[in-house]
Structure formats: structure tokens, C-alpha cells
Amino acid sequence: MRITIAQASGFCMGVRMAMNTILKHAHESDEPIETLGPLIHNPQTMELLRKKNVTTVKTPAEVTASTVVIRTHGVPPDIRGQMEARPVRIVDATCPHVKRIHKIIGQYYAKGYAIVIFGDKGHAEVVGLLGCAKGKGYLIQTPDQIGKLPGLGKVCLVAQTTQNLSEYERIKERIRAQYADAAIFDTICRATDQRQAEVVALSKSSDAVVVVGGKNSANSTRLADLARASCTHVFHIETEAELNPADFTGTRSVAIASGASTPSWLLNRVYERLSEIADHQRPLYQRIFIESVKIAVSFNIYLAFGAALAAWTASYIQGMSANYLHMAIAWLYINSMYILNHLTNITENQYQEIFKTDYIYRHRKISILLCMLTGLLSIALAYQSGLSEFILLLVASFAGILYHMKLLPKNNLPFLRNRRLKDITLSKDIGIAMAWAVICAVLPNAGVSLFTSLPSSGEIVAFLFIFILVFIRTIFRDLYDIQRDNIVGRETLPIVLGKKLSLLFPYPLLVLCALVPIAGFFTSLIPANSLLLLVCPAYLLLVYHLFIKNKLAGWAVFSLVLDFTFYAPFLLILAATAGLVPGL
Ligand code: SF4
């Protein structure tokens, strides 16, 4: 079963801005926050906000918190006036597209126009728009209703942002025919417009369509209705738990679309569940293979083997022959630390890595055992390797454990709110890259030079190369996890820079990653074949483009493809050494 995710998916711009605003306030203070009406029409997101002490009130009179948020749909001016009269801090999260319509209505009302609004009766946004029209607003749902309106004189036409585009075109035609001088505005937002066009196209080319979104969400319901016009198997669901495998028997292709208020973590969970259903339709040998791959990825065995190969690459850069003991140490250490990370992040990971977290959660005892076993074994091997290696690994392991521990009691102090090292801005990105670089590039030399001499130039090149490579990998992962990190309040680079800037950030890093082996080569600091390391930035560039084009759907595929970065230089250098590809 082929699964396609619509390009326009996850939160739209307005919802993302509102969520960012509210989460920022929630993370800055433990004070309760209230939203006037549900922030968005998505029960799962609202439940998540409730856990963060963000609750909903229906009217300004019910507000008890000191901070109140106006939701994306906006409010009528009289409600805003009532809120401003109260001693509360108002956070306005009204979507800019909705604000624009408020402004249009305000201007044309002042010029004496009657305001015709194409929208759903009772919808929060429409209530706000009618409020702006101050009694001169006329709500319609179909072109036919235009003929039944009283004589209006000058007319201004607007639409609710999430309305059906083709229906609005018909309404515009009818208004033009009846009111030649009407002021008509295109106010259906692009997010809605794109999603509707895409769901129509996908429903024509797929056997089934799954629309993920709140049952009370107007735009999700509209997407499902549009899909039903061309596809007989359409399922409007809120969570993956509603998917019934029997509904997909014989289905060859399924498309996933989502409403503007559906978080991408929920979408990922639906994708993973559909993948599981698809896997069950495969022959046994394929299922065994897929399950084995999932286990290798889930328990970080695949990534840890990549660490062993990164240690090999680091030794190669330094002109040293491979030391299998050091490779094994790198494997075991990385395996242990990543399992520890997942065990201490079960709550956070539930928003993203459904199958991985579920594996670790379901097999928690085995995971704890594996974490301890690999950790202790790495220390034992380091001891066998030498005293310097042993001390270095002990320090690295201790730092890894310390990184996850709560070091301070709960407090509201401005600079001490981060209770764990991993809560400090960028600590994750830098800490992980540093740990890899130390284990892969410094450890092989520890016995020779750790406490006695300065690092060699080859060691510096290897350290920088591994550091940058892992840093880029972590940034890619951060971009993938941006919504989860935002929810849990982790300040990774994409959160600090904002998504737009972060999407540009990998490019200079990739250039830097390419410059290290080039500089090493031209200064003869590293072996000639090391120029083959350029395969890493080239490969990562390809992965990045696939990622931003949504071609790496699903956590398992994303991890498999991304972590192959550590396998690529090893395989290429090996092939060049064997004369299978031209060396340098
Ligand atoms: S769907 Fe459009 S109008 Fe509504 S919140 Fe999102 S961006 Fe704003």
C-alpha cells in the first residue's frame, strides 16, 4: 500500500504563530493562562495545552487568570472591549489573515457599505466578522441566498478564511451580476486554498483518503467533503487509534491530508500506523525484514554501528589503521547514551516517534538492561584499551548521565529555570556533536597524546569533521522534531532561529563540512583518499532536499536515510582502496 502525505500539511502559518506565542508564555511562567474559546479546533492540541496549564473560558466574565489569549479566529470588537476593561494581560493570537478581514470590514463599514460574508453560521471567526460589521453584516452560505437579501445599496463581499474556494467563485459571480460596483475581496487564505486543491488531486489518484483533524474543525470537515466527491473511501479521523486495518484491505494507495489546525506530530503518528497496516499486508519474509530493520533503528543499533564507522573514518583521516576495539567502544557508548536519552524522554517523544518510543516503552526493561549493558561494556573495553581511554570514557559517560539529570529544584528564577543541562539553549546540538567527536576522533589517540602532548593536525581535522557532521545531523533531526521541541520547551537551534532561518542554516554548515577535508587535502594534513569524505556533505544535501520536499515521510525512513551519512564515507573509501571506484 503506497502512502502519500499531502505537501501542505501540519499547522498553517496562523495556528503555528498562535501555538508558538502561547507555548512561549507557558514556558516562561507557571502561571495559568486562559484562552477565550478553544485556541484552535483540535482536541488533541487542546489537551496538550491543558497539561501546560492553558485552559479555555467561554466569555470575558469567566476569566480568572492574569493572562488571556485571543485565539486565531479573532473576536468581535465588543468582546475585545470587555476584556480590555478587565485587569488582565491580553495576548492577541488572531491570525493575520483574519485581522486583514477585520480591517476591510471596518473600512467599508465606515464608508457606508453593507458587508456580505460567506461563512458558516456560528463559526467563531464568522461571529468576529459579523461583530466588526456592527449590524450591517449579512451572512450567506450559497449563491442563491444573495437573491433573498434585502436591497443593500453599496456592497462589500468577504469570505471566512477557510471557506470552499469554488463556491466562493460562484458567489462572487452572482454578487457582480447583482451589484456592479461591489467591493469584492479574496479572503480565503492560501493555506486553505492549497490544502483544498491538493486533497481534490489526491482523492482522484488514491484508493483511499485519510483526513486528519478535529471533528469540530470546519476546514478539516471541508477537506473530507471535497475528497468524498472523487473518492469512495474517505476517513475523517482525529487520531491514529480510529484507523481500522479492515478498512484498508485491498487498498493500493492511500493519501493523508490534514486540516490547518492538525499538528504534524499527530500526522506522523497516523502515517506510522498506516505503515504498520501496510506492512501487515506484505508477504512474511518482507515483514520479517521490515521488523528487523525497525528493531535495529528503534534500539539505536543502526545509528551506533554508524558511530563505529565514524570512528573508523576518524582514524583514517589521521592516517591510522582501524582499531576494532575503539570502533566497538564508539558503538557501545553511542548505543547506551541514545537509549538513555529515549528512556528519559518518553513523554516528549510521544509527540513524534511513535513506533520507536513505543518499542522502547513497551520493552522498557530490555531497554534499561541494554542501556546499562552497553554502557558498562564500553567502559570495560576502554579499560582494556588503556588508562587514558578509560578515564576519557568515564568522563564522557558521566557527562552523558549528568546531561539528563535534574540538577536544580523547581524554581521561577530567571536564569535558573533550566533544571537540566539538556534544557539549556543549544546544549543538545553542541553536546551531542562534542560527544561523538571526542569518542570517534580523540579516543583513538588518547593512549598516545591525551595527557602528554598537543593533538596532531590530523586529529584536529578528524575532530572538526566528525563534530560538524554530527552537528548537521542533529540540526536535521531538530528540524524534523521542531514541533515536539516547541511543545516540550526545548530550545534547539531551529526554535531559537525560527523555522525560516533554520531552513537556510544547513547550507553554510554543509559548505563548512566540505571545506574541512578540502583544506586538509591541500595542506597535506590528511591522506589523499580523504577527499572522498566530500560524499558526506553531498549526500546530506540530497537528504535535506528530500526532507524539505516531504519525501522522507515516516520516522524510520528518515532515520535510516539520514544515518547512512556515517556509512557512506566508509563504504566509498573501502571501495576506492579495493580499486572499485577511482581514488585520489
Ligand atoms: S487557516 Fe489560514 S486564516 Fe486560518 S489560522 Fe490558518 S493561516 Fe490563518
Automatic annotation (TrEMBL):
Any single GO CC term annotated in Swiss-Prot or TrEMBL for this entry: membrane
Keywords: 4Fe-4S, Iron, Iron-sulfur, Isoprene biosynthesis, Membrane, Metal-binding, Oxidoreductase, Transmembrane, Transmembrane helix
Residues that bind [4Fe-4S] cluster: C12, C95, C189
Catalytic class of the enzyme: oxidoreductase
Cofactor: record remark: Binds 1 [4Fe-4S] cluster per subunit.
Oxidoreductase listed as a keyword: yes
Pfam families listed in its UniProt record: LYTB, UbiA
Binding positions for dimethylallyl diphosphate per the UniProt entry: H41, H73, H123, S217, N219, S261
Membrane-crossing segments per the record: 295-318, 324-345, 366-384, 390-409, 430-454, 460-480, 501-522, 528-548, 555-581
Task performed by this protein: Catalyzes the conversion of 1-hydroxy-2-methyl-2-(E)-butenyl 4-diphosphate (HMBPP) into a mixture of isopentenyl diphosphate (IPP) and dimethylallyl diphosphate (DMAPP). Acts in the terminal step of the DOXP/MEP pathway for isoprenoid precursor biosynthesis.
Family: Belongs to the IspH family.
Record's protein name: 4-hydroxy-3-methylbut-2-enyl diphosphate reductase
